[in-house]
Design goal:
Layout (H helix, E strand, L loop, with lengths): L9 H16 L5 E3 L18 H25 L4 E5 L8 E2 L2 H9 L3 E5 L9 H12 L4 E5 L4 E2 L11 E2 L1 E3 H7 L6 H9 L4 E5 L5 H6 L6 E4 L5
Parallel strand pairs: 1-4, 2-3, 2-4, 5-9, 8-10
Antiparallel strand pairs: 6-7, 9-10
Helix pairs in contact: 1-2, 4-6, 5-6
C-alpha cells in the first residue's frame, strides 16, 4: 500500500515488480506468495462483527487482487507471470496445481501464489512455507518493512537487538513475531533456510539471491 495507507500504491507495486524482474534477470527461478493485508486482514473480522472464518476468506480474496495487480505490472515489464490460487476463481486465475507451477517456472515464468492455503486460520507465512516446500525452493525470502529479525519490534523500541543469524528453535523459543510458529516449524522440518529482509531497499532481493549478506538468516537447529 506504500504511502497510501490502504489499497495498492502504483509506485510501490512497480518497485516490487522491478525487484522480481531483477531476480529473474540473474537466471534464478522465482515464485511469489502475496498477502492481502493492504486491503483486508481476516483477524480484524471479529472486531467488525464478522465471523472469523468469513473474514479469513475475505483476506484470501484480497491476496488474489494483489496477485493480479502484480501479474499485470510484471507483464508490462516483459516478465511472463501466472497467477495460481488456492480458491476457485477460474475466470481470472489458474487453480493451484503443484506440477503446473513447477512447469511454469521451468518455462521461465514467475508464478504468483494467491489465496493463501485455501483454508481459514492459516497465515500467508504458512502459505509461503508450504508452497516453498512443495515446489522444492532452495530458500524462502520473507520481505518485511524492517531490516530483519529483532528481539522486539524495532519500530516501537529503539533498543531492539538485531540478529544477523538465528536458528529456527531460537525463533520459536523466544516467540519472535517474524513469522508464525507453523511456518517456522514447517521450514525447520524441511531444512528450508529463511532470509528476512527489508523490501523498501530495492537492492535487497537481488542481493539475497546472489548470496550477499542481507537481513537475517534463519536456519539450523533441530533438523539441520
Amino acid at each position: 500500500m506504500g504511502k497510501e495507507g490502504y489499497g495498492i500504491d502504483p509506485e510501490t507495486m512497480r518497485d516490487i515488480a522491478g525487484q522480481v524482474k531483477g531476480v529473474k534477470e540473474t537466471g534464478v527461478d522465482i515464485a511469489v506468495v502475496i498477502g492481502g493485508g493492504n486491503i483486508y486482514r481476516g483477524m480484524r473480522a471479529e472486531k467488525q462483527g464478522i465471523d472469523r472464518v468469513t473474514g479469513d476468506y475475505m483476506g484470501m480474496i484480497a491476496t488474489l487482487m494483489n496477485a493480479l495487480a502484480l501479474q499485470d505490472n510484471l507483464e508490462n515489464m516483459g516478465v511472463p507471470a501466472r497467477v495460481q490460487t488456492a480458491l476457485h476463481a477460474g475466470a481470472i486465475a489458474e487453480p493451484y496445481i503443484r506440477r503446473r507451477a513447477i512447469r511454469h517456472m521451468e518455462k521461465g515464468r514467475v508464478v504468483l501464489f494467491a489465496g493463501g492455503t485455501g483454508n481459514p486460520f492459516f497465515t500467508t507465512d504458512t502459505a509461503a512455507a508450504l508452497r516453498a516446500v512443495e515446489i522444492g525452493a532452495e530458500v524462502l525470502l520473507k520481505a518485511t518493512r524492517v531490516n530483519g529479525v529483532y528481539d522486539k519490534d524495532p519500530e516501537l523500541h529503539e533498543d531492539a537487538v538485531f540478529f544477523p543469524e538465528i536458528t529456527y528453535m531460537e525463533v520459536l523459543e523466544r516467540r519472535l513475531s517474524v513469522m508464525d510458529a507453523t511456518a517456522i516449524s514447517l521450514c525447520m522440518q524441511s531444512c528450508l533456510p529463511i532470509i528476512v529482509f527489508n523490501l523498501r531497499d530495492i537492492r535487497n532481493m537481488g542481493r539475497a539471491v546472489l548470496g550477499e549478506p542481507v537481513g537475517t538468516m534463519i536456519s539450523g537447529g533441530e533438523y539441520g
